[in-house]
Amino acid sequence: MSKATLEEPATTEEKVSPLLKLVLELGPLVVFFFANSRGEWLASHFPVLAEMGGPIFIATGLFMAATAIALVVSWVMTRTLPMMPLISGIVVFVFGALTLWLQNDTFIKMKPTIVNTLFGAILLGGLFFGKSLLGYVFHAAFKLTEEGWRKLTLRWGLFFLVLAVMNEVVWRNFSTDFWVAFKVWGTMPITILFTLAQMPLVMRYSVEPPEEGSAP
User: Fold this and answer.
1) Where are the transmembrane segments (predicted)?
2) Which one of 29, 38, 67, 187 is separated from 205 by 20 to 30 angstroms, measured CA to CA?
């Protein structure tokens, strides 16, 4: 199999607009926030939604629908499903269904804890066995040395665990509305800032691709 063939999936994914990627990632969260804040209005205008329960349950149902749409669009555009959004989506469907079925919002509130703990454990567990798993996820975006991938994987593994702890503190000690707002307007900016803070490390350990025609 040629090198071009091996890199074809990454090339296909790169054709997707960065703006579209951002919409697919943030869209479901914005829907969740809007539906929770305007739950009563939605229930009065769309009686079928009222059958789900209060605002948080309406938001959960629409969050599940928006997540499914985002995954379908991602598949149609790239013919692949990124591992992290896929795992997160599965947890959304499972815990969202439990939330609606049992009419208990504890399940959807625990979803970020479960997902972030899972990601953190996978990344740190991979390092324990000598594998920098983050390199397998972002190899198409960055070319780093082994040490670079190891450090970046460690940082992200710990960051995911911090997010899990933060979610537990917020949902257990504050109102549902505050938790929803923090999930959208708190967690996302924190994640963006953390990502930007890793750019010096990425630049320091970047590997320049060999020029065409150069000797192996």
Assistant:
1) 56-77, 83-102, 114-134, 154-171, 178-197
2) 187
Token match 């750019």: residue?
Answer: 199
Task: Supply the pLDDT for residue 2.
Answer: 40
What are the b/e assignments for 9-36, b being 16+ CB within 10 Å? eeeebeeeeeeebeebbebbbebbbebb
Angle (CA) 188 207 85, round 5°: 30
Nearest to 65 by CA among 30, 28, 33: 28
- By the 10 Å C-beta count (0-12 exposed, 13-18 middle, 19+ buried), 57 is classed as buried
Q: What is the pLDDT of residues 159-196, one digit of tens each?
A: 999 999 999 999 999 999 999 999 889 998 999 999 99
Q: What is the pLDDT of residue 5?
A: 37
Structure tokens belonging to residue 210: 């060999």
Question: Could you tell me if 80 and 13 are in contact, meaning their C-beta atoms sit under 8 angstroms apart?
Answer: yes
Domain boundaries, the chain: 17-101, 104-207
